[in-house]
Amino acid sequence: MKVLIVGSGGREHAIADAAAKSSRVDKIYCAPGNAGIGQIAECVAIGAMEFEKLAAFAQEKEIDLTIIGMDDPLVGGIVDVFEEKGLRVFGPRKDAAILEGSKAFSKDLMKKYQIPTAGYETFDDPKAALAYLETAKMPIVLKADGLALGKGVLICQTLEEAKAGVKEIMEDKKFGSAGNHMVIEEFMTGREVSVLSFVDGKTIRIMSSAQDHKRAKDGDQGLNTGGMGTFSPSPFYTKEVDEFCRKYIYQATVDAMAAEGRDFKGIIFFGLMLTEEGPKVLEYNARFGDPEAQVVLPRMKNDIIDVIEACVDGTLDQIQLEFEDNACVCVVLASDGYPVAYEKGKVISGLEEFDQHEGYYCYHAGTKLTEDGKFATNGGRVLGVTAKGKDLKEARLNAYKAAEWVSFDNKYMRHDIGKAIDEA
């Protein structure tokens, strides 16, 4: 098979790595890809939002399967474009990708179909939002309705903070048009867990749980980022939690989308909060999480191509997912200053170490090749250093050991990814 992967980050590197392990795959292309992905795939200089060019490339190269990694093209309707041209493609159509593309849509869906989530109101007028806040309980959560690179959520402790947040999202347009509409949501407390799933429109298969660390600094301080590290599985995702979610959240979401005439084929990422009243949905994403994919996919025993094809063909009921009985931790190496301002073009050394050690991975997120063929930084999140272990404690030690193999100027990382689990 010839496979095309659309995207350029650590998630797409993890997908490419999994696809490269399939005995069914002969050739992988990635558009636009990055320097690390270029070691296992042929990178193609076509942007993820250039749908017609991507489809033409897939036709020209007789691509057997295209995997869409990123949220923007999915919400923009890339799958519809590919399907209209008779191309096999993995991901939800535009009418289903709205599950991630509009927080107001997903909240209304959960309300209609009684899927557990936080109480909320939606607004398209900042004055109405400000009036609502006057009577609301603090802390409170403000969410830009549309896509905002995983950063369009503000947790406000006081009324003053919340008012400033409304201005930031709806008037100053910090997140662009994503802030034209806004969801104001009750603040939930508990443990956060991420659960990825494969869906074929009617059947859902749940992957191993994970937990992300969104804040830039140790102790969950600092600004929200796209993710500074993650681990899998989550010890808080118990058998009882799993049973509840399967009954009231997972299949219920797939059935709700089908009932709305929006059959969902692809990945549903369930962001869950384990509250005192039980698990509730924080958010949906319509694709693999980044960096969650970097700790879940290395533990999956199945051939990823078999599973993806079953989703496309509607035969997922014939697949049982299997995961290794171990743990995996990913520590993101970022450029100091991320997520605000940071320098690029710093030469990276030490990557050859990963070829010498089994169970260690280095997923490239923001890298490029210099003119003399060296790896250099090319983004805020640069690398996802990932390692397995027999349990989370060992996996964490291994990941931090591997993080020291890598050097570049302005290297920055959190030092407490999974630490609370170590100490639990």
TrEMBL record:
UniProt GO molecular function: phosphoribosylamine-glycine ligase activity
Pfam name, any one: GARS_C
Key word ATP-binding present: yes
Keyword ATP-binding applies: yes
Residue span(s) of domain ATP-grasp: 107-313
EC number: 6.3.4.13
UniProt entry keywords in alphabetical sequence: ATP-binding, Ligase, Nucleotide-binding, Purine biosynthesis
Reactions this protein catalyses: 5-phospho-beta-D-ribosylamine + glycine + ATP = N(1)-(5-phospho-beta-D-ribosyl)glycinamide + ADP + phosphate + H(+)
UniProt enzyme class: ligase
Domain of life from the UniProt record: Bacteria
Pathway this chain belongs to: Purine metabolism; IMP biosynthesis via de novo pathway; N(1)-(5-phospho-D-ribosyl)glycinamide from 5-phospho-alpha-D-ribose 1-diphosphate: step 2/2
Required cofactor(s): Mn(2+); Mg(2+)
PANTHER family reported for this sequence: PHOSPHORIBOSYLAMINE--GLYCINE LIGASE, PHOSPHORIBOSYLAMINE--GLYCINE LIGASE, CHLOROPLASTIC
Similarity comment text for this entry: Belongs to the GARS family.
Protein name stated in the entry: Phosphoribosylamine--glycine ligase
Taxonomic source organism: Brotonthovivens ammoniilytica
Source taxonomy: Bacteria, Bacillati, Bacillota, Clostridia, Lachnospirales
The gene coding this protein: purD
